[in-house]
Amino acid sequence: MNKPEKLYMVVPCYNEEEVLNETAGRLKEKYISLIERNMISPESRVVFVNDGSKDETWNIICSLHESDPDFFSGVNLAHNAGHQNAVLAGLMTVKDICDMAITMDADLQDDIDTIDAMVEKYYEGNQVVYGVRNARDTDTFFKRFTAEGFYKFMKVMGADVVFNHADFRLMSKRVLAELAGFREVNLFLRGMVPLIGFKSCSVYYERHERFAGESKYPLKKMMAFAINGITSFSTKPLKLITTLGGIMSFLSILAFIWAFVVKVIGHSEIGWSSMMCSIWLIGGLQLLCLGIIGEYVGKIYAEVKQRPRYIIDEFINK
Ligand code: UDP
Ligand code: MG
């Protein structure tokens, strides 16, 4: 192996005061062992991104930086930009100063011991290494059901995502440079990174329970995330509308013929209930289709504004 390369860890944090010190301690241990084994450069760092937390998170990050300025850095976002934006803010901040970056949640659900395998795969020439969960035993049935359903649904809807892979992944400097070229506002990193291409592979790990604190992804946010993922990455829903429109038109021709025949025969009273049903059905379908189209129009609206996706307040780095 040549000279060990610089690994930067990007950790988004939103109200994570309960876990941050523990996470920092464990990451430090891991780094020391990786540096000793000559797998990463001693100049490697951990960058915490504070995503507009309302608790002591930023103060903890500052004190970690003060106690160990060569190792811990912090990015403070000006407001809560959301998980995906926070991850991107961290990655774009480090993209020119690291050789590879790993993104990981702050709550220790992603297994830190997987980092070794990720780094090894990187040296084998992989530009992206996806961390993939091999079990969901620690998740509740509901979370498992919704999460796995999410990946399957995404595939059906035409968005290319790695099954059971969240945002625990290693990316090389080259991939980060390419990622910088994606200008979209509705971020869905899981869909964007596979689009970049390059040689990639997966490593498998067991997902733990959250070390402390509670999930910042309630059902409402999760569903919004899924809808965002689909509408940001695929136009399949639009194609489905066209198909549906075609089928409906065909059926209405049949209905027209049927009504005509009934009239000719002389039994022309059309049942009130069937009429009500069809009005409701068509009304409902139209609304559904309008809703889906509205989803895309909303996206176009957000994209054309070209707003910054995050605003950094400060970057503490030695
Ligand atoms: N997070 C963030 N901004 C947010 C919500 C969450 O930076 O608005 C961070 C959070 O601190 C954690 C990661 O994103 O490090 C994943 O969140 P969480 O663990 O709550 O999600 P879950 O694992 O329950 O899906
Ligand atoms: Mg979590």
What does this protein structure show overall?
The chain has 318 residues and is an alpha/beta fold. It has two domains: 7-217 and 307-316, Spore Coat Polysaccharide Biosynthesis Protein SpsA, Chain A (Alpha-Beta Complex), CATH 3.90.550; 236-305. It is 50% helix and 16% strand. An eight-stranded mixed β-sheet has the order 7-5-6-4-1-2-3-8, sandwiched between helices. Strand 1 (7-13), helix 1 (20-36) and strand 2 (45-50) form a beta-alpha-beta unit. The radius of gyration is 25 Å and the shape is elongated. The mean pLDDT is 86. The structure holds uridine-5'-diphosphate (UDP) and magnesium ion (MG). Residues 12-14, 16, 51, 80, 82-83, 86, 105-107, 109, 215-217 line the site of uridine-5'-diphosphate.
